[in-house]
């Protein structure tokens, strides 16, 4: 997708990966940008507005655990932009000691945001189609023992997004879906990990392994998120690891037998 002239919604746009991804998007001469986030970063928002006078940039306060916030934000965005072409669900929490909140933000929130956005974009309902990008994680590709709850929610995001990325949905609604799975990326989410794992570290190997995992910079991750959006193929799962984009081929383990 050529991003020039497109209307984009970014959830979590003031976060570590979000900020840098927004900056990459703004380099593409997008027409309009709505940032949905828990709290406003006024300084950054003004900087973006001043440097990008041709892009209509606005902020909507959204607590993604509140469905009414999500509904109000998309309604306001549709009224202001007319339509939106790309939605990036980039909000997230890593804190396995907060089980319900992690599930509400990472999984229920992403599902609600996706379905509400789809209501506006769905060609069968008068929308213009487009692309929905859900940010999962490498922890959403396999079980991650240190972060069992986070990993469960991210595996849910991957599966949900792959399911909607089926051609049966695309042929009906004209909206593509991709899953982005960043590897470890240097942001605040990885700080104070000892307080956020499912259980306190009870073995030195747990700390050693976590600390040894190689990380990518947030700038590299953001560049590749935007490249992945530009190359998006419906249903793709893209692992963004150490500066590279890998399109994953995830096999179906079950193929249903059909009654004749
Ligand atoms: N940093 C990594 O290593 C890494 C790796 C893989 C995936 N991810 C994912 O990338 C995304 C961005 O993470 P990040 O590393 O930039 O972390 P971050 O903590 O810097 O950003 C998280 C964003 O989510 C928003 N958010 C949190 N709770 C919210 C709520 N209730 N309502 C609305 N917004 C809320 C925050 O305000 C922030 O903008 C997350 O989905 C995260 O799971 C991060």
The biggest beta sheet is recorded as: 8 strands, mixed
| CATH-defined fold name | Rossmann fold
Runs with pLDDT <50, length 5+? none
The CATH homologous superfamily corresponds to NAD(P)-binding Rossmann-like Domain
* N- and C-termini, Cα separation: 41 Å
**Molecules bound to protein:** nicotinamide-adenine-dinucleotide
Radius of gyration: 18 Å
Which CATH top level class fits? Answer: Alpha Beta
Tally of DSSP β-strands: 8
Q: State which percent range the strand residues make up.
A: 15-25%
Tally of separate helices: 8
CATH arch. level architecture: 3-Layer(aba) Sandwich
Q: How do the helices and strands follow one another from N- to C-terminus?
A: EHEHEHEHEHHEHHEE
How does the helix and strand content classify structurally? alpha/beta
Shape: globular
Can you give the mean pLDDT? 97
Number of separate domains: 1
The percent of residues in helical segments reads 40-55%
| Widest sheet: strand ordering | 3-2-1-4-5-6-7-8
Q: Keyphrases for this structure?
A:
binds nicotinamide-adenine-dinucleotide; eight-stranded mixed sheet; 8 helices; alpha/beta; Rossmann fold
């Amino acid at each position: 997708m050529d991003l020039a002239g497109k209307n984009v919604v970014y959830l979590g746009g003031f976060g570590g990966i979000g900020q840098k991804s927004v900056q990459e998007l703004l380099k593409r001469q997008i027409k309009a940008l709505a940032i949905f986030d828990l709290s406003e970063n006024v300084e950054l928002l003004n900087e973006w507005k001043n440097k990008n006078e041709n892009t209509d940039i606005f902020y909507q306060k959204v607590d993604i655990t509140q469905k009414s916030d999500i509904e109000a934000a998309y309604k306001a965005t549709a009224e202001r932009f007319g339509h939106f072409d790309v939605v990036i669900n980039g909000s997230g929490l890593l804190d396995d000691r907060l089980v319900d909140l992690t599930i509400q933000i990472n999984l229920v929130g992403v599902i609600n945001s996706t379905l509400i956005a789809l209501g506006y974009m769905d060609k069968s309902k008068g929308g213009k189609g487009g692309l929905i990008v859900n940010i999962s994680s490498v922890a959403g590709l396999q079980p991650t023992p240190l972060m069992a709850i986070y990993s469960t929610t991210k595996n849910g995001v991957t599966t949900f997004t792959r399911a909607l990325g089926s051609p049966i949905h695309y042929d009906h609604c004209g909206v593509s879906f991709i899953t982005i799975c960043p590897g470890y990326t240097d942001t605040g989410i990885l700080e104070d990990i000892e307080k956020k794992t499912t259980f306190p570290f009870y073995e030195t190997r747990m700390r050693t392994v976590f600390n040894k995992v190689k990380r990518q910079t947030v700038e590299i991750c953001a560049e590749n998120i935007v490249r992945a959006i530009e190359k998006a193929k419906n249903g793709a799962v893209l692992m963004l690891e150490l500066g590279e984009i890998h399109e994953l081929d995830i096999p179906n383990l079950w193929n249903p037998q059909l009654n004749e």
